[in-house]
Hints:
Layout: E1 2-14, E2 20-23, E3 27-35, E4 38-46, H1 51-59, E5 64-71, E6 76-86, E7 91-96, E8 101-103
Antiparallel strand pairs: 1-2, 1-3, 1-5, 3-4, 4-7, 5-6, 6-7, 6-8
Amino acid sequence: xxxxxxxxxxxxxxxxxxxxxxxxFSSAELFIVxxxxxxxxxxxxxxxxxxQLLDLYYTSDNIQVRLSAAAADGRHFEGTAYFHSNVPKQxxxxxxxxxxxxxx
Length: 104
């Protein structure tokens, strides 16, 4: 098993309403795990917001989003993920649902 950890500096999500929203956070990391030929990914955030965005996905039945993320090293990532809010800790995890697209 191999794991790559990439610091993220910007995340934009688009829900099923079609509205793009900027996610704020104090820190975020993209984890890419490769194991026996399969590749999974997720983004873990700390001190995320805005609070109403966390609340929206905390109570929603539809938590699938399209995301665009910029890494600190200049790489850009896009994919579909599930938005898992942790309202008490002001954090969220975006769990990848498909292949993560990467560009420079």
